[in-house]
Amino acid sequence: MTYIRFGAKSLVLGTVFAILNNCAAAPHNNSPTTPPNGITKVRGYKATQAAGVAYAANGAAPAVLVAGPIQRGSKTQVRPDARWHIGSITKTFTATLIMQLVDQGKLRLDAPIERYLARYSDQMHPQWRALTLRQILSHSAGIRANPSLAVLIASKSYDPYDGRRRVLSQMWSQPLSRPKGRYHYSNIGFVLAGIIVEEVANAPWETLVQREIATPLSLTSLGFGPPKGATDPRGHMDGVVTSIPMDPNSNLSDNPAWMGPAGTIHMTLGDLAKWGQAHVKACRGEFASFLSQSSCKQMQTPQSGVYGLGWMIDTSHGQKQIWHDGSNTLWYAKISIDVANNTVIAAATNSANNTLVENLTRPDIARSLVSQTGQMR
Question: Can you list the domains of the chain with their CATH numbers?
Answer without folding.
Answer: 2-86+225-259+266-371 (no CATH), 91-206 (3.40.710.10)
